[in-house]
Amino acid sequence: MQYVFATMPMRSAVAAIWISAMLVRCVLAFGFHRQDTARGEVQNIALTLAFSGRFADPYRIPTGPTAHTGPVYPAVNALIYRMAGDTPLADRLREILNMGFAATLYAMLPLLGLRLGLGPRAGRAAGFCGALLPIYYWGELPGAFENGLSALLLAAATLWIAPHIVKAEPVSAGKAWFLGGWAAFLILTSPTLLPPLLALACLAVWRAAPPAGILLRASAAFLVVLAPWTIRNAVEFHRLIPVRSDFGIELAVSNNSEASPDADANTRTRYVRAHHPFDGLRPALAVKAEGEAAYSAQMLREGLAWISGHPLDFARLSGERMAEFWFPASHYLWHATGVTLVAVLAFAGWVVAWSNARPAAWILMAVPLSYSLTFLLIEACIRYTYPISWSLLLAAGALTASRRGTGEGRYLVR
User: With contact defined as beta carbons under 8 Å apart, do 73 and 146 qualify?
Assistant: First the structure.
């Protein structure tokens, strides 16, 4: 263990984590048939995009142009369907791709641990734990949604911005352009990543104090990358939709008299079948007749009306959703225990990092705490927790970092 966590060459540790993660997931998926190739809105859009060139039709019936999702992950799926056709093989390739996302994410953690100044042990412990103990497996593997790609992209953003927070390194003009564009790419993948990106940006501005010109470059890059999709939405829907149009639907199905804090439980309610156009024919027909943006605006009004009329029920649901986010429900005791243990160890790791490597603690706390705020409003489940699970593993790994080793992380792979 001492060799693995402290003295194994970095390249060897990264390779071992990546290979271990892929092997474990391949065995579970193809050896024990722990698979879920169900298709969601993303795959419906991807099929339309692959074979007709239109970003459209996410629901049960053709409903026309859509902004139900961001453009990035449906485009990735469309490439798979274009190569493999509308076949079971394409869905298997989607699973394998998401295995690769997960393996790369865990292999990145030793590098991220060093960037945060936690020393060699923390990131390697987190990486091997994530690779060998697949407690977030159902958040990683199916690939019906963008959560696997979101986790990888957010961890990469943290890796690149960490030096400007931990060591207050100045931001170059080229880096500003890159970070601004990368942030927009993340938002186009999943707008729920906006709160942690804002938290990281605020920390970097506070610590590195970049001049106004650097901030303008980053902002300009962000807008340049985001603008084409926003303009497309304005042309299609005749209203401002920066990325996604479905917030009204998600708010309403998460806040009603039948609502559960758990997203999976919600899909079985009469309300969802009567109002969500993916789950019910009647709402899909309404989207086709009224238009997607108009239907979502109607659902937004309905959700807000329920919240204003039931403040105590909303407060209860918000609290339950927050508990569901940090401690996701599971049908299996071992799985629920593992997820809970990681969260508890992460909280303890925040305390240790606060004492030994405070800039690292700021990052490890800011990312999951800011991300979790979304789930005060909408339903939660382990799929939604997964994009920040790496930060919890890394915080738990901080418990392995000695006070003496803290802050001594090096930036070069050896």
Answer: yes
